[in-house]
Amino acid sequence: MRLKELRKSKGMQQQEAAKELNIPGSTYAGYERGEREPRIDVLIKLADYFDVSVDYLIGHEKTPNHWG
Length: 68
Prior knowledge:
Layout: H1 3-9, H2 14-21, H3 25-33, H4 40-50, H5 54-57
Helix pairs in contact: 2-3
């Protein structure tokens, strides 16, 4: 998943992103490290927050394809 690059592009720390998304910090960190996989509803929440497609998050698309 491309969470780390998206988070850093917003100039955020992991804990800040987790708080904004209402996700425990350890859970968010696990997503970034690839140790955990988010459920589909969380993937959608992450994609909406970072303004990218779910396909981009999971590496299926090469470009962010920002919505809006």
